[in-house]
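Fold this sequence, please.
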Amino acid sequence: MSTGASIALDNVTKRYETGAEVILAVDGISLDVQPGTSLAITGPSGCGKSTLLGLIAGLDAPTAGRVSIGGREISTLPDDERTRLRRHEIGLVFQSDNLLPFLTATENVSLQLSLDDTAEGHARSLELLDELGLADEGARLPDQLSGGQRQRVAVARALVNRPSLIVADEPTGSLDAESGEAVVELLLAAQRSSGATLVLVTHEPKVAGRLDMIVGMRDGRLADRTDRADVPEVGPSDKRPRA
């Protein structure tokens, strides 16, 4: 079992300049996430959710403030070191599966380990695909798989390096309700079994309600926070309407 990474954001700000306009995508956010727990980031489109997730994942650096993962500040790391961090310690899942169309499901999952010349790559990939119900699909190309199957391959790819942090940006956004529930269940099961920390961006209250903590964003700032003890328990097959 891997050890989950703690997350610490200290007055994090991200600005973008587009010509004469300055966009304040993330505005002075401070937040702590305990290792091995799960966090949902919610809010309307354009509020800064994906930008914040990208800063946590080391996909971008903040304009100001500090981002620390596992006690290590990553805000000031050069691009190549942040890339190395993502390859070895962070699993990424996006709304679009981003699979390479010319590689099979197994090859897509094992690619990351192959780049590191890790001998267990193929066996580890087959193991994950089996666990995710794709044992018979490993030789198929992405366009031969359903949307739900492709997203499960993307989840396997995110887990192949046994990451201490899993980040997912709207992983159910392009899926039907049944496939979306299956993907969320897979992410939560992987987080529980591995001990990793999970951060997930979602528009869906039902999905957010299954994580340990929810933070809502408005205009680049944290608007509210809810801990799991305050969230009604909602299982994957619970179809009750939410108030």
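Strands lie at 7-18, 21-33, 38-42, 64-69, 72-73, 90-94, 165-169, 197-201, 213-218, 221-227. The chain has a mean pLDDT of 86.
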